[in-house]
User: Which sequence fits this backbone?
């Protein structure tokens, strides 16, 4: 979203109302993989995730 703000901001310190609306339309999280089940071995679950930099990821863990 920071890159989008730079393209919209035109040097402004803070977005105006129209720019906030535009940024909100781009505010999303892409799904890397569909939800999947991981069976822990010996009570331990391992998951490797590769992310481009800069990046952030949200992992939701649920005990079934």
Assistant:
């Amino acid at each position: 979203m920071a890159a989008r703000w730079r393209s919209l901001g035109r040097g402004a310190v803070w977005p105006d109302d129209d720019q906030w609306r535009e940024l909100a339309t781009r505010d999303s999280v892409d799904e890397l993989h569909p939800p999947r089940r991981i069976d822990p071995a010996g009570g331990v679950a391992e998951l490797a995730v590769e992310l481009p930099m800069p990046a952030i990821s949200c992992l939701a863990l649920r005990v079934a």
Notes: The mean pLDDT is 80.
